[in-house]
Specification:
Layout (H helix, E strand, L loop, with lengths): L1 E9 L2 E9 L9 E10 L1 H8 L15 E9 L9 E5 L14 E4 L5 E2 L6 H23 L9 E3 L5 H12 L4 E5 L5 H7 L1 E6 L1 H4 L10 E6 L3 H9 L1 E9 L13 H5 L3 E4 L7 H14 L5 H4 E5 H12 L6 E5 L3
Parallel strand pairs: 8-9, 8-11, 9-10, 11-12, 12-13, 14-15
Antiparallel strand pairs: 1-2, 3-4, 3-6, 3-15, 4-5, 5-7
Helix pairs in contact: 1-10, 2-3, 2-8
The structure holds NADPH dihydro-nicotinamide-adenine-dinucleotide phosphate.
């Protein structure tokens, strides 16, 4: 038996609780892991609260991220004692995930602990930091350089937003952060933002084209915000879209794309090929200022993850939440 969060759905309804879980509940896979840390992402909060149909199999342990030590390996590329990292691959959605002390995982989903990071640091970065790096790489791929002008980051106080600001600033970009919490300006500036704007400027229905303001953007918000960001991106710019915190709709026109050559680059972290994962983590090791992690991250216990999920969806959590699965 081990401690973990369990999501159940039956006649009694949808619920998440901290339980002693029998190992027979875990799937048959080629690697077993003692989990050291997991995290609380937006998707985990949706799963824990049941606010969106993220979980597609019950009962299920949530947690799309984890880091842990291999305790059993039937594959050639991981050995007992290795520290391994997982982001995504449907874990915490259709396969039991990281918000527990043990996990059974498919070796194809795992990478070794990236060099340069402790296990806790790697989880502090987690899917949010890894996705932020994938967004930065998408901007680079589409030719957005610091010389082209400022880059906007929406959802600045969120996990993806916080890392996107920090990474872009480290790479020499001028960063504009959009947020609903302008009172957190000191935090956003410490991460590297030079200008803070109120997200209300972007969140209402807007015009097909507006004044050209940014060379690129990282958007974790979607909906009218993403439409307005595209409409105000400079000629030839690129918007990396990864999230839906405002909504999954995109009430936009084609005008920014056909008149300004703007590229809308979709960013998925869940099913990303291994080579992309390793490249993104390598870039994180090169670029991220790890001294900022203490500002971005707070650590909680498994039990605390349930109320924290409600707070995260209510926009009351800043940065990242790391879950210590052994507390
Ligand atoms: P967080 O909850 O940490 O951050 C989301 C931020 O969005 C909030 O902190 C808030 O920032 C802003 N926000 C929240 N509600 C609204 C709203 N109604 N309108 C405008 N802005 C809002 O989540 P994460 O950083 O973990 O994830 C962000 C998004 O990215 C989520 O939609 C998530 O599902 C998605 N995501 C996608 C991935 C992929 O593979 N494509 C991977 C990881 C995340 P502020 O207070 O500063 O305004």
């Amino acid at each position: 038996m081990f401690q973990g969060l369990l999501i159940e759905k039956d006649e009694a309804g949808y619920r998440t609780s901290l339980q002693s879980i029998d190992e027979t509940l875990l799937p048959q896979t080629d690697v077993s892991v003692d989990v050291q840390y997991s995290t609380l992402n937006y998707k985990d909060a949706l799963a824990i609260t049941g606010k969106s149909p993220v979980v597609r199999q019950f009962p299920l342990i949530p947690g799309i991220d984890l880091i842990g030590t291999v305790t059993r390996s039937d594959c050639s590329h991981f050995s007992v004692g290795d520290t391994v990292l997982l982001n995504g691959f449907g874990v915490g959605e259709v396969h039991s995930g990281g918000l527990a002390q043990k996990a059974n995982l498919n070796s194809d989903w795992l990478i070794k602990l990236p060099s340069g990071f402790s296990p806790r640091q790697a989880m502090a970065i987690g899917t949010a930091g890894y996705t932020a790096m994938l967004c930065v790489m998408a901007l680079e791929k589409h030719g957005v350089t610091p010389e082209h002008g400022p880059v906007l980051v929406t959802g600045g106080n969120g996990g993806v937003g916080s890392f996107a600001i920090s990474l872009l600033a480290s790479l020499g970009y001028t960063v504009v952060a959009s947020t609903g919490r302008v009172d957190q300006a000191d935090y956003l500036k410490k991460l590297g933002a030079t200008e803070i704007i109120d997200r209300a400027e972007l969140s209402e229905p807007g015009r097909p084209l507006g004044k050209e303001r940014w060379a690129g953007a990282v958007d974790s918000v979607g909906s009218h915000t993403l439409a307005n960001v595209c409409a105000t991106t400079r000629y030839g710019g690129c918007v990396a879209a990864c999230g839906l915190a405002q909504g999954y709709d995109l009430p936009a026109t084609v005008m920014p794309f056909i008149l300004r050559g703007v590229t809308l680059a979709g960013v998925d972290s869940v099913m990303r090929p291994l080579a992309d994962r390793e490249q993104a983590w390598q870039r994180l090791a090169e670029v991220l200022d790890v001294s900022l992690l203490d500002d971005i991250v707070q650590e909680i216990t498994l039990a605390e993850a349930i109320p924290a999920a409600e707070k995260l969806l209510a926009g009351q959590i800043r940065g990242r939440v790391v879950v210590n699965t052994n507390k």
